[in-house]
Structures are given as structure tokens and as C-alpha cells.
Amino acid sequence: MFGVGIPELMVLFIILSVIIGVIILIVILSSRGQKTTLHNQLQSQMKEEFIVFTGENAHKYLPKFEKFNIGGVDNFSITWHWPAFFVGFWWMLYRKLYL
């Protein structure tokens, strides 16, 4: 119809996809590892807030909270709590959290 066939359009689409992918990769890699003083201040402020929140038990809980933010990047960390495992079902029944 326009003088361009399907194979030419597919090649053009693939080339544009690769170019966009390379640009996104460059942006991600260039932003990685940049720490500002504002970020460091926020980290120390967050640590102080955790200490105030947990009170005298801060020495126990602070290492657990630090697992969730490593190097300024929010992470997911798998944790396990045995009392919640064994008592959770009965607590949900007590709170009427059933269907």
C-alpha cells in the first residue's frame, strides 16, 4: 500500500526496539551507584527514627531493619517468625478474620 512491505516494517521495529533498549540500559547503568549527601542524611535520619521507635530493644531490631535497605536500595528480605506461624491461625479466629 505505501511501498513498504511487512518484512521491512519488522526490521524497522526490531531496530527501534534495540535502540530503545540500549537507551534504557544506559540510563539505568548511569544512575546506579550515585549516592548524594541528601540520601546519606535520609539514611542516618531513618536509622535514628528506628532507634527511637524500638527504644531499648534497638540493638535487636536494627540489624533486621537494615536487611530491607542495603546500599540505599530498598530490598525484600525473607524473614520468619515462629510465634506468628503457630499462633496466627488462632489469632485470626479470635479476631473473626474468617469468611
Topology (SSEs and partners):
Blueprint: H1 6-31, H2 37-54, H3 58-66, E1 69-70, E2 73-74, H4 82-94
Antiparallel strand pairs: 1-2
Helix pairs in contact: 2-3
Describe this structure in words.
α2 packs antiparallel against α3. This protein has a domain of 63 residues. 67% of the residues lie in helices and 4% in strands. The longest helix has 26 residues. The protein has 99 residues and is mainly alpha-helical. 0% of the residues are buried.
The rounded distance between the terminal residues' Cα atoms is: 60 Å
Number of DSSP E strands: 2
Strand order of the largest sheet: 1-2
Overall mean pLDDT stands at 78
Spatial shape: elongated
Low-pLDDT stretches are none
Task: Give the number of helices.
Answer: 4
Radius of gyration: 25 Å
Helix content: 55-70%
Structural class: mainly alpha
Strand content: under 5%
Q: Give the H and E element order.
A: HHHEEH
- Profile the largest sheet: 2 strands, antiparallel
